[in-house]
Every structure is written in structure tokens, then in C-alpha cells.
Amino acid sequence: MTEPSSPGTIDAAALAALVRPGARIAIADGCGTPRAAFAALSALARDRGDLRLLLGWMPAFPEGLDLAAFADVRTVMPGWGLRHGVADGHVRSVPARLSATPALVTGPLRPDLLLVGAAPDPRGLVLGSEVSWVRAVIEAGVPIAAVVDEALPRAAAGSPLPDDHTHVIGHARLGPNEVPAAGEPSDEHRAIGRHVARLLPDGARLQWAPGQLGQAVVGAVLERGRPVHVDSGLLGDGVVDLDDAGLLASDAVATYLVGTRRLYDWADARGRAGHPVLHGVEHTHDPVRLAADPPLVAVNTAVEVDLDGQINVEGTARAVVGGVGGHPDYAAAATRSRRGLSVVALASTHRGVPTLVEHLSRPVTTASHDVDVMVTEHGVADLRGRDRPERRAALREVWDPAT
């Protein structure tokens, strides 16, 4: 894979020629978002005064993108990178599960132009470190403005960008944003990871999210030493650890990569060998596919949980943390998977504040009936087959075993 170096060059006039008055411009999201074009696009927005913007999941703040320059900015999944924009009122966060985004971006939020980063390949220009909802926009025939980035991995399944409506507006060698591990998992996270690993049936298909808790789950799977299938919306460096240990039972499946060069180089090698990791959300978040064998164990977390087991992942009363994303997609599919499990795992407190609350700070992200098992550092609450009072008692026990 080519080493990243220079920020690149953008033909601002070529970009401007593609943007009609009042246009809505969608920017491909994830770590490989075409940030080399952000300054030129922002300058165009300030000049025009009527351009609209459609964003997706941004794991890092989009440096160079002047959100205030656009007449309207919406995101179908804010992520950490857009939380301040949402809080400041520059970005409207649309509550939508990730599986619904292809319908949104080809329907009421259909853009007039799609801005992507693309990797050069013998077949043509290809998507790099994510596919997400972008494939749906491409297949809808929306014109594409492409920044060719030689440092992007060739990790995506599917056809190259269509020649007939793809316009190259610049070149770069930035590669994907690197997102290093958030630090070593805490003792609480490691205890949770061990509890989760004991729940896995042999031959399980595992979904988890990157972060300290995800690291702890992968660490426990490595200690357990039994192969797993990996089928997740986001993939971090942990999948490389599993592969190095010989514990990947099949080709990994995801729609976003979020990690370090080690992950991107691994995915690039897989793609070049004919085993692409990345697929569109129509595939990765399809509930019918996810609920089929092998059994799916979806391991998600939460900001807070109420006494009925309803889940909030969007934020606290004071701050936006994330969006709906794939949480309800994987949870609902896992409850339907025979021998599978929908697991929500989190520490019993966060910065000294209990994560089990009487009333959620924000709307429900995932319904209580789409959660099979709740895990804290204190143990496992199996909620299956229990009525409401029994579920409340089980939740209280794993938050405060002394009660």
C-alpha cells in the first residue's frame, strides 16, 4: 500500500462546474472521507451561499470543512467528529438506523453530487476504506466528484466507479485517518470481555464495535482460543489480531474500517488477494442475512440503560455522543438468530455516575425486546423469557449485586 505523504491538489474550477445552484452535496464518510477537497468545497459554499451538505459517520472532526458556510447540513450518523457541529446547531442529526440510509439517500435526501475518495486500481477507480451507504448513491446514477488517493486501501467489494458519471477533481496521498486505540481496557472492561466470551457458542459470528470494550472482547476471544466468524459494521485492529492468531473462521465482513495503518494494510492485502472485507450496508446490515447461520452474537454498548432495559446510545442530557447507527439493526437480527444473542455490555458506572437510570436522557435507540443479555463487570443478566418485573430485578442485580 502507498505511504501517505502530501495533502494533494484539487481543481476548484472543476468542482465548481459540477455544482448547480442550491445543490445538495453528499460526502462519502468514514476514515477515508475525501478531506483533501474540504477547503475547496467550503470556499465554494461561502461563495454560493445556497449549497447544502449531506454527511455520514465521521470518526474525527472534518478539518477544513466549514460547516457554517452551508445553507443546510444534515447527517445520517454524527459520530464523534460531528458532535460539536450538532451541539452548535450547524448540523442537523437525522435519527435513522444504518440499514435505512440507502432509502434515505436515494429518496428524500438524494444528493445532486457525491464527493468521494477513490483508490486507483487496474479495474478503474474503486472505493477504499469504507462503502457504507455510498454504493446506493452511486447505483442511483448521481454524478461523482472523485479525489484519487493512492494511499487508500483497495478493500471494497463491488464494481469500480462508473466512468460515465465520475469526474476526477484532484489527487492526494493522504490515506485514511488513523484512529489509534483509545487506551488499554480497564479492569471493568476486561471483566466484561471475559463474561461476553463465555457466552459465545462454537462457530459464532461476532459483531463488536471498536473501543476499549471492543478491545476487551477481542482479548477474551483470543484467550478463549476458539475461531469465530467476524461480521461487523465497523472493523478495528482487533480483527488483525484474530487473523494473526488463526482465529478467523471465514472472510471478515464490514462496511467501515477504523484503525491504524496495520488494519488498512491488512485490508488492502485481503482485497488485492480477492477477499475484499468491505460491503455496502444493504449487505452488512441486512437483517435476514444476519439472522441466518452461523449464529450471530451482536455485542453492543450503550450510554445508558433504563430499568426496563431500553437503550440510549445517542448521548447524555447535555451532549450528543453518537447516532442511532447499526445498534438496532444488529440487536434485532441477533435476537432472531437461532443460538445467537443480542448482547449489550457496559460498565455499571461512567465517571462515577450509574449507567442504569430510571429515565433515559434521550430517545430510545434500541428497544428492550431486542436485547437478550445485559453484561456489566458484575456479571450477566439473561433477560430471555422473563417478564418485565423479572427483567428489572435481573438488571438491578448486575448493576449493584449488593441489592
From TrEMBL:
Keyword Hydrolase: yes
Domain (Acetyl-CoA hydrolase/transferase C-terminal): residue spans on this chain: 259-401
Entries under InterPro entries matching the protein: AcetylCoA_hyd_C (IPR026888), AcetylCoA_hyd_C_sf (IPR038460), ActCoA_hydro (IPR046433), NagB/RpiA_transferase-like (IPR037171)
Gene3D superfamilies the UniProt entry points to: 4-hydroxybutyrate coenzyme like domains (3.30.750.70), Acetyl-CoA hydrolase/transferase C-terminal domain (3.40.1080.20), Glutaconate Coenzyme A-transferase (3.40.1080.10)
UniProt keyword annotation of Nucleotide-binding present: no
SUPFAM superfamilies: NagB/RpiA/CoA transferase-like
Record protein name field: Acetyl-CoA hydrolase
